[in-house]
Design brief:
alpha+beta, 221 residues
Length: 221
């Protein structure tokens, strides 16, 4: 700086003014104030539970360092929480003020995580089904389907019924398979086979087969 001042004294005043202006711009950009509402994710947290700084990356990739204290309201699922409960990477929506070129947090709302996709429980390998006296006396299931198998795998079959509707029916570990009146296995089913299915809905509202029957004993439709 001494050299710059010396240069200014020898006619370099314009250069000094330019350098000072650049330094002022850089200092201002380092303290970019946040707008009123910022949506983004938490990158870092500094300080203690009562007061400190949250580092937030906004959706436009700008990074803000905003202070909080005991007057800042932190909310999750409509309940007040502490700053320490917020995890890195969580989505935030904050209302911020700017005072003296600094960002101050008034409220911090932690966005709810999206619901996890429902996954069907794993199924045990299908085994050979023998005759069941109780099934013969009191057949399980209040739904019946008759149609042609369009697709099938180890977990489910897809039927096309007479009304041209497609129905997905899941196979249970205890599903009974009868081919021409004799006990059989799921592996004996084939695409384009005409079958009769007795089924019911489980607690997840999924249609499951209790009995699958096919063969020449079925009447033609």
């Amino acid at each position: 700086m001494t050299d710059i001042v010396a240069y200014a004294g020898s006619g370099g005043g314009d250069l000094v003014a330019l350098i000072l202006a650049l330094l002022a711009v850089l200092a201002a950009s380092a303290q970019t104030p946040a707008p009123g509402i910022v949506r983004g994710e938490l990158l870092d947290r500094e300080g203690e539970a009562a007061e400190g700084i949250l580092v937030i990356r906004a959706d436009d990739n700008k990074v803000y360092r905003c202070a909080f204290d005991k007057r800042t309201l932190f909310e999750r699922n409509r309940l007040l929480v502490g700053a320490a409960s917020i995890k890195f990477g969580e989505r935030l929506e904050v209302v911020a003020d700017t005072a003296d070129a600094a960002c101050y947090l008034r409220t911090v709302h932690v966005a709810e995580a999206p619901p996890a996709a429902r996954r069907l429980p794993p199924r045990r390998p299908l085994t050979t089904s023998g005759s069941n006296v109780l099934d013969n006396l009191f057949p399980r299931g209040n739904l019946t389907f008759a149609g042609v198998i369009l697709r099938l795998n180890s977990e489910r079959i897809v039927l096309r019924t007479r009304d041209a509707q497609e129905h997905t029916i899941y196979l249970r570990p205890d599903t009974r398979f009868l081919q021409q009146g004799a006990p059989s296995e799921a592996s004996a089913l084939r695409v384009n086979s005409r079958v009769f299915v007795r089924a019911g809905k489980n607690f997840e509202n999924i249609v499951e087969a209790f009995q699958v029957v096919w063969g020449t004993i079925l009447p033609r439709q």
